[in-house]
Design a protein that fits this description.
This protein is an alpha/beta fold. It has a domain of about 80 residues: Sandwich (Immunoglobulin-like), CATH 2.60.40.10. The chain is about 15% helix and about 35% strand. It has 1 helix and 8 strands.
Length: about 140
């Protein structure tokens, strides 16, 4: 009975390992991570990172940590666009990101220096137009 028990245990263990592999392959979620850098290679902390599903329009937002690192976990399969914005830098958009089941994708982002911009907001009230008669008459 000892050999039969061990043999049954080995077969059962093989089935369990096979089932775990199949279940992992059928996962419908992936992970997207990366680090954001400036042109000199220094990390950019507190950059705004947006991951947008192309087909549904759903967006997930986050920010880089003090090491410039960002992470989106449990990302459903599909096509995505990754947008990174930080003060003083140009917005960077990465399109065509394909998340497949159990994928772990890394997208390091290098930001370009942005141009200084000035926003001027003008508020006012339009003058009222008062109709007047010039006194001229035409024949």
């Amino acid at each position: 009975m000892g050999k039969r028990f061990i043999s049954s245990l080995v077969v059962l263990s093989c089935w369990i390992l096979l089932a775990v592999g199949v279940l992992q392959a059928q996962s419908i979620y992936g992970t997207i991570t990366g680090t954001v850098y400036d042109p000199s290679g220094a990390v950019v902390a507190n950059a705004n990172v947006t991951l947008k599903n192309v087909s549904s329009g759903d967006a997930r937002r986050g920010a880089t940590n003090s090491d410039g690192y960002y992470s989106f976990s449990s990302v459903p399969t599909g096509a995505y666009t990754l947008t990174v914005e930080a003060g003083g830098f140009q917005k960077t958009v990465t399109e065509g990101i394909a998340v497949t089941g159990a994928a772990s994708l890394s997208f390091p982002i290098k930001l370009a220096i942005g141009a200084a911009t000035t926003e001027v907001k003008v508020e006012g009230v339009a003058d009222q137009i008062i109709a007047t008669d010039s006194g001229e008459k035409s024949v």
